[in-house]
Amino acid sequence: MSKQRHAPSLVLERLARSRSEEPICVLGIDEVGTGALAGPIITGAVGFEDDENKLPIAVRDSKLLTHARRKELFKPIMDAALVTGIGAVTPEEIDKWG
């Protein structure tokens, strides 16, 4: 049986917004790497304003995009971002902390 992928929705974000007096930040997170098997895992995160009209095109998984499409989306995503972050974990750190 194949793993079914679902398009991202903002159902939980809408619920959080309806219960908050403060603005919320919608985060997109993705990782690359094989970790303990062959090197570090690198993770990137991007935070957006919770206004759906300001969110860039929906991206489910960057690995499903061509290299050219990822490059094309970089500027619109960075222009819309409120905050960004990058992290790296070595195989030794994965072994130590799980």
From TrEMBL:
In alphabetical order, the GO MF annotations are:
metal ion binding; RNA binding; RNA-DNA hybrid ribonuclease activity
GO biological process annotations for this chain's record?
DNA replication, removal of RNA primer; mismatch repair
Name the PROSITE patterns on file.
RNASE_H_2
Q: Which reaction does it catalyse?
A: Endonucleolytic cleavage to 5'-phosphomonoester
Required cofactors, per record?
Mg(2+); Mn(2+)
Q: Which residues form the RNase H type-2 domain?
A: 24-98
Q: What is its main location?
A: cytoplasm
Keywords (alphabetical) are:
Cytoplasm, Endonuclease, Hydrolase, Metal-binding, Nuclease
GO CC field: cytoplasm; ribonuclease H2 complex
What EC number(s) has UniProt assigned to this enzyme? 3.1.26.4
Q: Which InterPro entries match?
A: RNase_HII/HIII, RNase_HII/HIII_dom, RNaseH-like_sf, RNaseH_sf
Q: Which Pfam families match?
A: RNase_HII (PF01351)
Q: Which SUPFAM superfamilies match?
A: Ribonuclease H-like
Localization recorded for this chain is: Cytoplasm
Checking PANTHER family in the record gives: RIBONUCLEASE H2 SUBUNIT A, RIBONUCLEASE HII
Q: Report what the protein is called.
A: ribonuclease H
Q: Which organism is it from?
A: marine sediment metagenome
